[in-house]
Amino acid sequence: MKKELIDENSFGEWLHQRRRMLDLTQQALADQVGCARITLRRIEAGTLKPSKELAQILLEKLGAPPNERDAWLRFARGLADSPARLVDSFTSKLITNLPALLTSFIGREKEQDEIVHLIAKNRLVTLAGAGGIGKTRLALQTGQKLLDDFPNGVWFVALDSLSDPALVPQTVASVFDIREGPNRPVVEILMNVLREKTVLLILDNCEHLLDACVQLLDALLKNCAHLKVLAASRETLNMEGEATYQLSSLSIPETDDAMPEKMNEYESVRLFTERAALALSSFTSTKENARTVADICRRVDGIPLAIELAAARVNTLQVEEILKQLHDSFALLSGDGRTTLPRHQTLQASMNWSWGLLSEAEQTFLRQLSVFAGGWTLESAQAVCDADTLDLISALVKKSLVVVDRETGRETRYRFHEIVRQYLRKKLVESGQEENIRTRHLKYFLQFSEQAESALKGPAQMEWYARLNDERDNIRAALEWADETDDVEAGLYISGRLNIFWEIFDVREGTRWLEGFVQKPESKAYPHVRANALCALGRLINWLERFADARSIAQECLELYRIYGDKYGQVDALLLMAGVVNPSEAVEFSQQALTLAQSVKDVWRTAYALYLMGWGRQDRHSYVEKALTLFQKAGDLRLMAECMAELARLEMLNNDIESAQKILDEAAILFRELNIRSEMPEILVSYGRIAAIKGDFEQAYASLKEAVDIDEEYGRRMSYLFSRSHLGYLALYRGNITEAQEILAETARDFFNDKNEIGVAFALEGMAGVFVAVGKVEIAVQVTGWANTARERIGDPRPRLEQADVDKIIAACLAEMGEAAFSDAYEAGKKMSLEEAVGFALGEG
After folding, report:
1. DSSP secondary structure of 396-459
2. d(CA 301, CA 800)
3. What are the CA-CA distances from residue 176 to residues 97, 179, 664 (Å)?
4. Whole-angstrom Cα distance, residue 455 to residue 459?
5. The whole model's pTM is what?
6. For residue 666, with 0-12 CB atoms within 10 Å meaning exposed, 13-18 middle and 19 or more buried, which class applies?
7. What is the distance between the alpha carbons of residues 684 and 580, in angstroms, rounded to a whole number?
8. Side-chain half-sphere of 168: how many Cα atoms within 13 Å?
9. CB 200 within 8 A of CB 147
């Protein structure tokens, strides 16, 4: 550090040197010590000795060491020579009052860099965010990074305990040891002190003193050219030249897909782990508790204060118990730290702080908005709430109580942190307006479901898939209210109209809602609405392969629609019936549906009837192509993709691999654009079979295994069993005979238990290949004889590709057995029943 030589004979010269070294003007120092500028000028010139009181203040401001103060005081008064030594500059310490942090600072590297960049470009930066989000800690950490950039210091001013706006200037001035003079306002003195200085001022917790902060900062920034300000506030200052940085939560694992060992890559998980170790020294992050900790962090939306409060509970609760408590209530999130500000000791207190700063209109609007689950749009808020919606949302965004979610090409959405929503929900209940607002919310989503029903079949379906996915929690909330208030008609309408949505996103949930409403006795008072809901339910439980229930529902729907003369409904019921009967009956019902759909000139229903008519027919290809053309006309991308996937499968089964690959790629692109994971297995199975044909067994296995996993995830049992059977076939092609036998025997038994004869035939045809591989050709022939007979009886001819496999089995058996023995075994197989064939093939008969 630079040293300075003290002139033993002149306090005035020393004072001049010291002032210049500290970059203070005479006026600035005079303001700090409370004297006139002329007085200071005369002291420096040596024509005036300071009074004892003035000398004490000067030495204090200029940093004279307290233990040497008496010697320096005598020197200043001209009563002694200067201390005869070289002294270090009194500013050997950093010029800052930033408090030392008592705990480690976790993450936020990106945020720090971005704020530093903003401060470099702007003179006023506001760090905005909700209570408990970590604004103060981040501001302090950023200040530490910038110490070298501000030679005259980084100064922190906490306003949280201040309630009188008039005291804001004095509070800031006190940081610089400035006292208000009798004849000059403190703001003027502060401006003079900071006028030529390069300083970063960090102003913390401005939200309750906004007007006073704005007035002070406006004066300082206009008169102090080298001053920069970082303000931390729940609400932006809304000043000219203000750059705003909206602070979000700490990073959290979005799903449980992340591996346990990777959980600590997330800031929220690291924070929980470190703070938990402070509360319980033995606490560590393990594979066993990592997912639970991640769930806790997700539950509190990654809000640092909430995480710290939850982590502090590990000394009395296990992490699983903490998570359970958080699901029941956020009351767990309280702390008793003696040094913690009262409003940060609980999240309730933090929210009370913000609530008290709101106008009555803002409070009313927030209570009403709490009815939304998972967020809202401007349109939905305008429909449900009583307010000047746009202006109030804008104001609440600035106050960091509403979070904005923007995504290119998507409608802007708004949401609360879940902690905020629960707080506001209590306020809504306390206001006595809950019933009224929830009923408005239900009516809005009743209208929303009507728009969605038709949109999901046309060119706007991609947009509506996204909208419905965004509104899933709101749809649930609306249905819950319909259930609680016995508004069965609304419940039937909403759950029934969204059948396509349920099919794509969650068949089981849709089934639960629909069964719940149609089983209510009151549903019979709305027969036509009930018929629509039953038809939707039939489609879903058919998807879940509850075929007998689906057929019963289809018959009831058809009867109700005929009573009401609803031809569109009759088509839907006939199409449902066609999907739950055997192939020969399916053709009959599909033909009836086609004729009726054409009579009412409904393109979408005509296309669907054509699509179903081809099942079990040799000319299925032409029906699917016609359906594809009509779905293109209707703009239904999902069913276009389904048709293309089916065409690709048919091309592959007819051994036209090149054409199948091309069509399949087009279908895959559509499915990816639509983001419909549940319907990918059909695509993946075809990819797997094509890869196997080309000899790429590794790729074949990867595709088929993914199909199996998705089917299992979505509970599509029949699709799962067929996908798994293909894995058995693949094992056979690769020469893994034991694996092939285990898989195919298991799937054959499951198909049998589920009464799916076609599935049994497909699995046993694979088993026939296993029998040939192990030299049991007679069993292979009998199984093949039964399978051929079963397919002929059911009306499900074997495709060319699969027939080629069976032909190879037959050729191998003929070569081994001869024609006579082959014929006897084949005839024996033809005579077996389904039960006998399964028992025989699996060694159980």
Report:
1. HHHTTSSEEE--TTS--EEE--HHHHHHHHHHHHHHT-HHHHHHHHHHHHHHHHHHHHHHTTST
2. 55
3. 10, 9, 72
4. 7
5. 0.69
6. middle
7. 24
8. 22
9. no
Q: Which of 832, 716, 580, 745 is closest to 753 using CA atoms?
A: 745
Task: Check: CB of residue 592 under 8 Å from CB of residue 571.
Answer: no
Neighbours of 845 (CB within 10 A): 11
Q: How far apart are the first and last CA of the chain?
A: 97
Question: How far is residue 589's CA from residue 572's CA, in Å, rounded to a whole number?
Answer: 11
Query: Concatenated DSSP letters for 492-544?
Result: HHHHHHTHHHHHHH-HHHHHHHHHHHHTSGGGGGSHHHHHHHHHHHHHHHHHT
605 close to 568: Cβ distance less than 8 angstroms: yes
332-372 pLDDT, tens per residue?
665 555 444 454 456 677 778 778 888 999 999 999 999 99
416: left (phi over 0), alpha (psi -120 to 50) or beta: beta
List, in sequence order, every residue forming a beta bridge with 415; answer none if it has no partner: 403
**Looking up tokens 């159980």, which residue turns up?**
844
Alpha carbon separation from 719 to 119, 584, 611, 648, 751 (Å, rounded): 58, 21, 19, 17, 11
Q: Kindly report the backbone phi and psi dihedral angles of residue 71, in degrees, each rounded to the nearest multiple of 5, phi listed first.
A: -65, -40
Distances (CA, A) of 565 to 152, 496, 536: 86, 19, 19
Bridge partners for 346 per DSSP: 334
pLDDT digits (tens, 9 = 90+) for 655-687: 888 888 999 999 888 888 887 777 788 889 999
Q: How open is the CA angle 790-794-797, to the nearest 5 degrees?
A: 80
DSSP secondary structure letter of residue 165: G
Please count the helices (runs of H) and the strands (runs of E) in the chain.
42, 9
Q: Residue 497's Cα: distance from chain center in Å? A: 26
SS3 493: helix
Residues 209, 165: contact at Cβ < 8 Å?
A: yes
Interatomic CA distance for residues 381 and 444, integer angstroms: 10
Look at residue 394 and give its three-state secondary structure.
helix
Q: What is the C-alpha separation between 613 and 579, in angstroms, rounded?
A: 10
